[in-house]
Structure formats: structure tokens, C-alpha cells
Write a structure and sequence with these properties.
Blueprint (H helix, E strand, L loop, with lengths): L2 H5 L1 H26 L19 H10 L5 H19 L6 H7 L2 H8 L11 H64 L5 H36 L2 H8 L25
């Protein structure tokens, strides 16, 4: 028997591929939830040379409330399978693997078998492992989708607030202008009323001048604020134009390594 068959390299390679996909995806999910929108290659913890393990990443997502208990359990289950096949030379089949695990972990794995299938069937176990992988990928996709939706809602909320503020400034500005024009065009025959009209006009002119200055300051501040990703991210944990979000549309595991179920 060749060393490749003896070690079951095909199976180990498939498990490794699942793990690589999951860990890379977990990275994206974690970066998104931590508000780290820069290229992950520039981070010390989440780059290819990062110092944080897959277990640490899953634990952190659990601690900050991103993953539920069941979701966390599914990621840990795949990680346990991955570690056994990658680090134990004697673990060359699902039969060997499951005999080495405690009953609680084996029962968790059995939930991914199809009805009527048994752990004694290697193909059935391969299918269960693939479904576990699919389950974890679906979890990550859903979490990213929800997170993006929340960020968009936050951004839309502050945009609406900004637009409302500008509307009221413009509204008051226009109102004062109309009053000013009406006062100027009024035929004030009574001298006392005429004097009052002039005083009101002067008050309005001063108010309009102050409003114009304040409006320009407000508009400038709003433009600077909403055009700065760093400012929005630091205060609200959102990003104005998230072009670097993970793209999940059409994601598929390469068919070449999909087990025959």
C-alpha cells in the first residue's frame, strides 16, 4: 500500500480545504464586527502571519455575541475534526477519528448524518462532514449579511438626520428672507410703524447674516464628517462606502473536492 493511501491524503486534503475556507471566512466576519475595514494583511492579528488562532477567533466572535452557542459548537466540531486529521498520523479515516472522540462530540457529529445513515459508513461520514462545512459557511454568510444590513441602516439614519438638519436651516433662511422682502415692500405710512419696520428689517438682516455664516459652517462640518470613513467608523462603528466587504455571491466549494455522497 502506498504512503498516500495509507495516510488517506485525499481525505486529509478535503478536511484541510474545508478548514482553510472557514478560517479565511471567519477572518472576514471578525474584521467586520470589530470595525477593522482596512486590508487584513495590514493587521497584526488577522494577517497570514497573525498571532491569533482559529479557536481564538471563534471564541472572540462568541464573546462579542456574534455566534450563538449552537453556531459556536459547529465551528468547534469542524476544528476538532481538522486537528485530528492534520496532527494525528494514525487518524486516517472517520472510523478511527470517531473512536478517538468522546460520546458528546460523536453525537454532535451524528446530527449531520442523513436519516438512516450510520457512522460505520465512511461515505456517510464524509457527507456529514461536508454538510457541517456547508452549515458553517452558511452561518458566516448570514452573519455578514446581517452585519452589513445593520451598518447600512446606521448610515442611512445619520444621513437622514443630516438632511433634516440642513432642511430646517434652509427653511428658516427662506422664511426670514420672505419676511425681509415683505417688510421692505410694505407701504408704512405711519412714522412709528415705519420706524418699527426699519428696526425689524435690521434685525432680520442681522439674523440672516448670522444664519448664513452658521449654515456655511454646518454644511462644511457635515461634508467633512460624512466624507471621512475614519471619523464615522471611530464614532459609530460604520463605514460610508464599504467597497472592501467580502463578496459571497455565487460562492461554491470546488466540485473536485466535494465528497461523493
Amino acid at each position: 500500500m502506498s504512503i498516500e493511501k495509507q495516510l488517506n491524503i485525499e481525505l486529509r486534503g478535503r478536511i484541510l480545504e474545508y478548514s482553510l475556507f472557514i478560517e479565511n471566512s471567519i477572518n472576514d466576519l471578525l474584521l467586520l464586527n470589530l470595525g477593522l475595514f482596512s486590508d487584513k494583511r495590514n493587521t497584526k492579528l488577522f494577517s497570514n502571519k497573525g498571532k491569533i488562532s482559529f479557536q481564538n477567533k471563534v471564541d472572540l466572535l462568541n464573546d462579542i455575541g456574534v455566534l450563538s452557542k449552537e453556531e459556536n459548537s459547529n465551528f468547534e466540531l469542524l476544528m476538532i475534526i481538522r486537528n485530528k486529521f492534520m496532527h494525528d498520523i494514525e487518524c486516517d479515516s472517520f472510523h478511527t477519528l470517531l473512536n478517538q472522540l468522546d460520546n458528546g462530540i460523536v453525537n454532535r457529529f451524528k446530527r449531520f448524518l442523513e436519516d438512516g445513515q450510520q457512522t460505520s459508513n465512511e461515505d456517510a461520514c464524509a457527507g456529514a462532514c461536508y454538510r457541517l462545512f456547508q452549515k458553517n459557511i452558511k452561518t458566516i454568510k448570514n452573519k455578514i449579511s446581517v452585519n452589513k444590513a445593520v451598518i447600512n441602516k446606521k448610515h442611512e439614519f445619520f444621513q437622514v438626520q443630516n438632511e433634516q438638519k440642513l432642511f430646517y436651516i434652509d427653511f428658516i433662511h427662506d422664511l426670514m428672507n420672505e419676511i425681509s422682502i415683505a417688510t421692505e415692500n410694505s407701504e408704512l405710512e405711519n412714522p412709528k410703524v415705519a420706524i418699527l419696520g426699519v428696526e425689524l428689517l435690521q434685525i432680520l438682516e442681522k439674523a440672516i447674516h448670522r444664519l448664513n455664516i452658521q449654515s456655511e459652517i454646518e454644511k462644511k462640518n457635515q461634508e467633512e464628517f460624512f466624507n471621512s470613513d475614519d471619523t464615522i467608523k471611530s464614532i459609530f462603528g460604520i463605514k460610508r462606502d464599504p467597497k472592501d466587504w467580502p463578496k459571497w455571491e455565487g460562492f461554491k466549494l470546488p466540485e473536485i473536492n466535494k465528497p461523493k455522497i
